[in-house]
Amino acid sequence: VLIAADFLAMDDLLPRAIAFVADHLAQVLREPVDLACLTEPLAARIAAHLGPARLLQVRDTSGRIAPRLYRKATEALLESGADAIACCRWCNQVFDRRHVGLLSCPHAPPQVD
Q: Which backbone phi and psi does 62 adopt, to 5 degrees?
């Protein structure tokens, strides 16, 4: 539906299809769907919908879509003029320092406030 909505320029359906795919990405990745036909703008919109915290949780062992989503999120981050990109010392994930309060690393030692 997402590819068809994009191809047919169904402007009312496209945002809902993007949200559905982003919200159910784990299920989509379990299906035998060829994601190579996903356009770059669609990948960028899915990555934007996911946001940094949810994007880090994407488990795509076959590399069918996660690398594209990471690339698109990084491109958007760089285009936004982010002044500080950092790398987690525990897991080596790259992130925008503006999102540090939104992210948590499962490899970091527990902290008490």
A: -85, -10
